[in-house]
């Protein structure tokens, strides 16, 4: 055998270590600048793992079901996102939506035109959330305490209003969001899925393409600095909570499409599930970082995790355990990246 053998030059250990460190730093910067990148990678990894571990996971019907399951919590998480971006939190969001379903259904059953009943539900949700916003903005009370109190108040009001009974939602516009359609005669989806997608795009555009959205991030990063730069922080916070309330009303409407009844005991854990979706999606609990895309991914991660583990025969307690660990990991990662970038 003839020829010349060549060998690649060997770098000194110090240079190899320096190159590895630069690569890790670049990867860290990338994840820090794009909060939704990590959750997206986690979602794809989960899909691959469950597709390998279950014969029934990887099919279009299952994915359609996963999205349908996540649409109400994802919409609640959307409202939660804009509040968390300001550095706040809303523990009452799910019960505000439940109150919205009760108002929409009861007034429709009483003979009020459905459009007016829907508008009244939106008004009730927006006003209820605005009360929290008013207390947070004007009195500077911690949002955690304010919304915890509001959670108790709204729970009591919902039970008093309904007398603890569940009302069936009349067919028609009130349950429109649950109407099923088929793409190519095969892929099932609902009007609610399209409506939620449009809502997410609208909020994403508002947050990323308007001055209002930039002010939301500015308040989350440093409220005092935002005030010194001319932003009316109190008015902004009030508008954030009011908009979140309107989004909770949309979640209420979507809920009536998915389950055509108004139950005062529904979505008891919806607040925690929406926070889970937001945090897993990469939005910082400290405000100023994250966004709508991450929330969509976070909601899908939770649904994919539950669907995959269920199909693999894993007990629901272990599903909750896995979800809790994910939340802790997400918060720890957020704290780590914040310290590194400080």
Question: How would you characterize this protein structure?
Answer:
With 342 residues, this protein is mainly alpha-helical. It is built from 13 helices and four strands. The strands form two sheets. A two-stranded antiparallel ribbon has the order 1-4. A two-stranded antiparallel ribbon has the order 2-3. A hairpin with a 3-residue loop joins strand 2 and strand 3 (187-190).
Low-confidence stretches: 1-6
The number of distinct β-strands equals 4
Helical percentage: over 70%
Indicate the proportion of strand residues. under 5%
Distance between the termini: 60 Å
**Rg result:** 23 Å
Number of helices: 13
Instruction: Specify the biggest β-sheet.
Output: 2 strands, antiparallel
Average pLDDT number: 88
Structural class: mainly alpha
Overall 3D geometry?
A: globular
Strand order of the largest sheet: 1-4
What string, H for helix and E for strand, traces the elements in order? HHHHHHEEEHHHHEHHH
Features:
342 residues; mainly alpha; two-stranded antiparallel ribbon; 13 helices; 72% helix; 4% strand; globular
Mind sketching the topology for me?
Elements: H1 13-33, H2 37-53, H3 60-85, H4 93-109, H5 114-138, H6 143-162, E1 167-168, E2 180-183, E3 187-190, H7 191-209, H8 211-221, H9 223-228, H10 233-258, E4 261-262, H11 270-280, H12 292-311, H13 316-341
Antiparallel strand pairs: 1-4, 2-3
Helix pairs in contact: 2-12, 3-7, 3-10, 3-11, 3-12, 4-5, 4-6, 4-10, 5-6, 5-10, 7-8, 8-10, 11-12, 12-13
